[in-house]
Amino acid sequence: MIISRTPFRVSLFGGGTDYPTWFREHGGAVLGTTIDKYCYISIRHLPPFFDYRHRLVYSKVETVSEFEDIKHPAIRGILQDRGNPKGLEIHHDGDLPARSGLGSSSSFVVGLVNALRALDGKMSSSHFLGNEGIRIEQDVLAENVGSQDQLWAAYGGTNRIEFFPDSTFSVSPVIMSRKRRSDLNSHLMMFFTGFTRIASEVAKQKIDNLHQRELQLFAMRKMVDEAQDVLESEARDICDIGRMLHESWSLKRELADSVTTTDVDAIYEVGRAAGALGGKLLGAGGGGFIIFFAKPENQAAISKALSNLVQVKFSIGSPGSTITVYEPDLDN
């Protein structure tokens, strides 16, 4: 049996400039980090003793004989694209809910590709997994998604990702001291808003508006440079990140009406009133998880003010998609 473990991510700055429609003309960049919350996919060849060839277990259970009968769109698309002739059993588990702004769809795709290749005895580089995740989501599944989530899932870490007009990319670690990394981690808080959304539907409106929001996107892209400077220079006040997040969230809200809701705005204002310097809704928008940047001494008040929401503790910089192989014990 093969098990892949693929991280979720928190995107901090530059989101929106990773859409191909944008960066193929202007270039783009994002800054963010993976977290120690994961998507797990276990996979094995299904023994030929059943009246079906494939068994799929996620929030539902599917037993089918043909790929085209699979209801899960990502599993169906990936298996049809690969054309694997053998029967498969696939299980999916996640530390956090799907459709919640943490790049879970891309983590699923990258993790499944990694697991399928490992089942075939193939090792996959981070570069391959990132490229393949982008290709599958954008071309095979025809989703309205950007190009950052697949790279976080594949590479892991706290990085700056640059997107170039020729559709290539570079992934560069943000070089922080241990203390600086700890400071960043200790200032971040995350809450679940209680509602989810389909990112592709939210993103479509943003993509349609991109060329009418050039000023906002150029400003959001510029923040990647400044945020990297803040994180890599201990002479800068770490709280500048919080203030920048607030400015970035204000700009992101202008990209499309679907980015936020009155409920999200209310949650954000409660967090700010309780002491948060800034924050943002994660992912395309519309729902899911929200993060706040706050001094540690103010976090108890924020947690109390948002006690009706589920708070999630996390650590930044987790590794990219990994594989564990479980061999049967033939001696017993």
Task: Give a brief description.
With 332 residues, the chain is of the alpha+beta class. Helix content is 38%, strand content 23%. It is built from eleven helices and twelve strands.
Task: Characterise this structure.
The chain has 332 residues and is of the alpha+beta class. It folds into two domains: 2-174 and 318-325, Ribosomal Protein S5, domain 2 (2-Layer Sandwich), CATH 3.30.230.10; 179-311, GHMP kinase, C-terminal domain (Alpha-Beta Plaits), CATH 3.30.70. Helix content is 38%, strand content 23%. It contains eleven helices and twelve strands. It has helices spanning 20-26, 73-82, 104-119, 126-140, 149-155, 178-187, 199-209, 214-232, 240-252, 262-273, 299-305, and strands spanning 2-13, 28-45, 54-57, 61-64, 88-94, 158-163, 169-173, 188-192, 278-281, 289-293, 310-311, 322-325. Strands 1, 2, 3, 4, 5, 6, 7 and 12 form an eight-stranded mixed beta sheet that branches. A four-stranded antiparallel beta sheet has the order 9-10-8-11. Helix 8 (214-232) runs antiparallel to helix 9 (240-252). The protein is globular and about 60 Å long. 45% of the residues are buried. The model has no long low-confidence stretch (mean pLDDT 91).
% residues in beta strands: 15-25%
Q: Count up the domains.
A: 2
**What CATH architecture of the largest domain would you give?**
2-Layer Sandwich
Shape: globular
Radius of gyration: 20 Å
Low-confidence stretches: none
Euclidean distance between termini CA atoms: 17 Å
Share in helix: 25-40%
Element order: H for helix, E for strand: EHEEEHEHHHEEHEHHHHEEHEE
- Number of distinct beta strands: 12
Number of helices: 11
Content-based structural category: alpha+beta
Q: Any idea of the CATH topology of the largest domain? A: Ribosomal Protein S5, domain 2
Major sheet size, sense and barrel closure: 8 strands, mixed
**pLDDT average, as an integer?**
91
**CATH first level of the largest domain: which class?**
Alpha Beta
